[in-house]
Every structure is written in structure tokens, then in C-alpha cells.
Design a protein that fits this description.
The chain has 6 helices and no strands. It has 149 residues and is an all-alpha fold. Helix 2 packs antiparallel against helix 3.
């Protein structure tokens, strides 16, 4: 349990740290860290219950995307400010590094295995963001229709 709490704190700090690197407004840093943590918790929960690479990253990206839109409306800021720091814990940096390393060492079979993982994870996260944007558009249309009636 202690190790899990340390992971949660590190994910929160990674969201804040990346927010500092990309010059996020200081009033958005805390919320960006919380968004990253919630997205990672969804990722971690699905990873431990279902396993795999696609579903955890898809649902993590989906939650980050939906929460970013909600937070952006609440804070009256662009949602991209909360998307990018929330995405950082899900990025497949380890697999990308191992892919490049194995290409350089001549281990092409292992390198392509890691590269396929990178593509699968990145595609899952991107699809999660696309579905989150689709949910946002449907919600906007629903609100507009409801306001007219």
C-alpha cells in the first residue's frame, strides 16, 4: 500500500513538473497534477483487473480528455492545458527507449516488438482523446438542443 501511495505522489508530481516545463499558469498546476493522477489511477486499475496494453491506455486517455474539458470550463481556460500534463504518466517512454536501443544493437525482432507496443499504446491514448472529444461534442449538441426548447 505504501508503494502504491508513492506511485500516486510521483504521478501527481510528474503532472505538475511537466506543467512547469511547458509554462502552465500557476493557478492550473495543482489541478493538472490531480488530472494526471486520476487518469493514471484509471489506467492502473484497468491494468491490474483486465491487463493488456490497449484498454488501460484507452480508458486513461478517455478519462483525462473528459476531465480536461470539465476542468477547462470550470477554470475558464483551454482544455489542452490540462490534457498535456495529464498525458505524461501514460506515455510509453520506456518501450520507445528499448526499441531504439535494440535497433542500435541489431536486435531487430526485439526492437520491432517494443515498437509495436509503442504504436499500440500511443494509438490507444489518441483514440481515448478522440472519444473524449466526441463525448464533448455530443454534450454540446445536447445542451444547444435543450436550450432551444
Amino acid at each position: 500500500m505504501t508503494f502504491f501511495m508513492i506511485k500516486c505522489v510521483c504521478v501527481y508530481l510528474s503532472g505538475i513538473g511537466f506543467g512547469l516545463i511547458v509554462n502552465l499558469p500557476h493557478k492550473a498546476l495543482n489541478i493538472a497534477g490531480i488530472n494526471a493522477t486520476i487518469g493514471w489511477l484509471v489506467y492502473y486499475w484497468i491494468l491490474t483487473t483486465w491487463g493488456g496494453l490497449g484498454a488501460p491506455n484507452f480508458f486513461g486517455g478517455l478519462v483525462i480528455g473528459v476531465l480536461s474539458v470539465i476542468i477547462a470550463r470550470w477554470k475558464k481556460m483551454p482544455s489542452i492545458l490540462f490534457d498535456v500534463p495529464g498525458l505524461v504518466p501514460l506515455v510509453p517512454g520506456g518501450q520507445a527507449y528499448n526499441s531504439i536501443k535494440n535497433f542500435a544493437l541489431g536486435n531487430y525482432q526485439v526492437a520491432f516488438n517494443y515498437l509495436s507496443q509503442v504504436v499500440w499504446i500511443a494509438g490507444s491514448i489518441a483514440l481515448g482523446f478522440i472519444v473524449a472529444e466526441l463525448v464533448n461534442k455530443i454534450q454540446q449538441k445536447f445542451r444547444q438542443t435543450r436550450a432551444r426548447n
